[in-house]
Every structure is written in structure tokens, then in C-alpha cells.
């Protein structure tokens, strides 16, 4: 059974992207541990918004790892490759879980704010790494949005990076058995 893991960067005031989806303020930070995290995952799950942005801005970013897109507006099927990564669309999380199980996938990177929120709400996210960088945006796409209720997190670790960011790892109780 696949486990789901998120790795997000945010501004000091809690935004994961600028008002128009800008990420340049975040990509300027290099010592985030993303490469180590990325090497530990087998596939990605993302929402349609993240898929559209990454397809346009950085199609090779996911380096041949399979991409699974959650979308109610795209037909559930295989899509053209993005960079060197295969892309498959799923209408919901349960169908994604079946496909990942059939493929023998173990660790999945959940990417995108709303998708992370959906996995939290479904009690499927195993852990979340948040890197809060020392930049204030004033507006943008918030790190978190509405949830059906409180989600208790367990602090695993926290440390400051050489660039002044604070990285915190939380684990969550999940409904995955």
C-alpha cells in the first residue's frame, strides 16, 4: 500500500505561491532538503492546477517519476508524457490508490496546496515537511485552507537552514492500514 508524503515551501506569512502563482521567491532558496526527499519517492500525485503550472513552467522537473493527476475536469486516462514522466489522470483519491497499488508504488509525493489539503482531510497524508522561508508576500495562495475539522500533527523535527529558512516535519495519524 502506498504512503503519501508532502514537501512544501511557504513564505513567512504562510503563502505557497504569489497571487498569480509566482514561485521565483521560493526557488531562490537552495538548502531545503528537497533533493533528498525527492529521491525517496516513487511517484507523484498532484491536482490539475499544479499539473497545468508545472507543464508550462518546468515539464522536466519531476525527472521521469510517474505523475498522477487528480482532476474532475480531465478525462481519466493516460495523457502525453510531461518531460520524461508518464502522466495518468484519476477522478478521485480512491481510484488513484487502486492504480498505485496495482503498480506496486510505495511512496508518493503529494504536490499542490489543495491536493495536500484533500489528503489531510481524507486522513491519508503520512507526513508533511514545511520549509518557511524568510520572505513576506502579503498575498497569494495560502498554505492551508478549510478542513472538515482539526487535524492533529506530531512534531518530528525542526531546524533552521543556512539561508535562514525554518524547516519543520510533522507526521499525522492516517487511515492507511
| CATH superfamily annotation | Dihydrofolate Reductase, subunit A
Average pLDDT value?
Answer: 91
Give the biggest sheet. Answer: 9 strands, mixed
Span between termini: 8 Å
| CATH class bucket | Alpha Beta
* Poorly predicted ranges: none
CA radius of gyration is 16 Å
Characterize the structure shown.
This protein is an alpha/beta fold. The chain has a single domain, classed as Dihydrofolate Reductase, subunit A. The chain is built from five helices and eleven strands.
Question: Helices, strands, pairings?
Answer:
Layout: E1 3-11, E2 15-17, H1 24-27, H2 34-39, E3 43-47, H3 48-57, E4 67-70, E5 78-82, E6 85-90, H4 93-103, E7 107-111, H5 113-121, E8 125-133, E9 141-142, E10 154-160, E11 166-171
Parallel strand pairs: 1-7, 1-8, 3-4, 3-7, 4-6
Antiparallel strand pairs: 2-9, 5-6, 8-11, 10-11
List keywords for this structure.
single chain, 177 residues, alpha/beta, Dihydrofolate Reductase, subunit A, two-stranded antiparallel ribbon, 5 helices, 23% helix, globular
At a glance:
This protein is an alpha/beta fold and 177 residues long. Helices cover 23% and strands 34% of the residues. It has one domain (3-171): Dihydrofolate Reductase, subunit A.
